[in-house]
From TrEMBL:
<keyword id="KW-0732">Signal</keyword>
<dbReference type="InterPro" id="IPR035994">
    <property type="entry name" value="Nucleoside_phosphorylase_sf"/>
</dbReference>
<dbReference type="InterPro" id="IPR009486">
    <property type="entry name" value="Pur_nuclsid_perm"/>
</dbReference>
<protein>
    <submittedName>
        <fullName>Purine nucleoside permease</fullName>
    </submittedName>
</protein>
<dbReference type="Pfam" id="PF06516">
    <property type="entry name" value="NUP"/>
</dbReference>
<feature type="signal peptide">
    <location>
        <begin position="1"/>
        <end position="22"/>
    </location>
</feature>
Length: 334
């Protein structure tokens, strides 16, 4: 009899715990901010891609552990959530899928800001620029061969059949127009070190002050570098009918594929800050640019990661403050 009572009590306890968890309301996520890395802590040290977001939105929140994600999720009372997903296609997309499928969250009406740092071709941008993506293109999906094995001057990349639906994504044009309007008046920060570094490049865009740009963000696990591969990225953008290549990064197309399978792409935004050029200046080899000597780095990293949040928060705040207009669909912008 005693054993039966213990078993009955245990069963009731288990059922009670299960029901308690089942009764917990899901967090309705209005905006999810995805960063790819943080240098160390979320506050109190050198900032990476997430720290300024954390200080702006999540400082008073508690971490939510998610099985399968490399870092916890933070959510504030206004429905803004964020996490550091990990660098590269596999780490970031695996974390995103684990978070999307987790029982704590309701992503049915969520907007996504995929944000971080990247590189820019000097013909298109400069250090401390902030760029909203209009297209996301996967750099890795196709066939490549060595230039010496090709006809002189001809491309060494060929698309492969079967990847048509995942090799490129055009982001919602109406939402891109909203990002342009909402962030148009943000004053971007700059640094003396970045200003000095720009003078090494002859390109007009490379030498100017930082600004907000729009164009194709190129996703690749391969950290491609040099004028030849930069031209190849532009060639692939044109081949796919995308806009000019303006940012190189490592995650956005992969994360978008994961989100697309569950929620589509109409609420995805890609936001990147340029912390390096994708090639050396005319008097610098590609290898020297990839592995710079002390004092030869671009500078401006701290200002760029702050600029990203200065720009992105304008959109996040507007969506949250006007949620009744945004929850069912992105409002039409006349």
């Amino acid at each position: 009899m005693f054993v039966r009572k213990i078993l009955l009590y245990s069963l009731l306890l288990i059922v009670g715990i299960f029901n308690a968890h089942a009764a917990e309301p899901k967090i309705k996520v209005k905006v999810f901010v995805a960063a790819m890395f943080e240098i160390s802590e979320n506050q109190g040290d050198k900032a990476g891609e997430f720290q300024h977001w954390y200080l702006t939105y999540f400082k008073e929140t508690k971490p939510i552990q998610v099985t399968g994600a490399v870092n916890p999720v933070f959510c504030n009372k206004d429905g803004v959530c964020g996490s550091v997903l990990g660098m590269g296609k596999v780490a970031s997309s695996a974390s995103m899928q684990a978070i999307l499928l987790n029982q704590h969250f309701d992503f049915a009406q969520s907007y996504f800001v995929l944000n971080g740092v990247g590189g820019t071709p000097p013909s298109q941008g400069t250090i401390a620029d902030v760029s909203w993506g209009t297209w996301l293109v996967d750099y890795d999906l196709g066939h490549r061969w060595k230039p010496e094995e090709a006809e002189a001057g001809k491309p060494t990349f060929m698309p492969r059949k079967g990847y048509e639906n995942i090799r490129s994504y055009q982001l919602d044009t109406n939402l891109v127009r909203w990002t342009k309007q909402l962030s148009a008046n943000v004053q971007l920060k700059d640094s003396p070190s970045a200003q000095a570094y720009r003078t090494r490049y002859p390109d007009k865009n490379a030498r100017r002050k930082p600004k907000i740009t729009f164009g194709t963000h190129f996703t690749g696990d391969t950290f491609f570098h040099g004028p030849g591969l930069s031209k190849e990225a532009q060639y692939i953008s044109e081949l796919y009918g995308a806009d000019d290549y303006v940012i190189t990064e490592m995650e956005a197309a992969a994360i978008t594929q994961v989100i697309d399978r569950l929620h589509g792409t109409s609420r995805i935004m890609s936001l990147r800050g340029a912390v390096n050029f994708d090639q050396g200046h005319p008097n610098e080899s590609t290898l020297a640019h990839l592995d710079p000597a002390p004092g030869e780095t671009a500078g401006g990293f701290a200002e760029t990661v702050e600029n990203i949040v200065l720009v992105g928060s304008q959109v996040v705040d507007h969506i949250v403050l006007n949620w009744a207009d945004w929850k069912d669909a992105t409002p039409k912008l006349n």
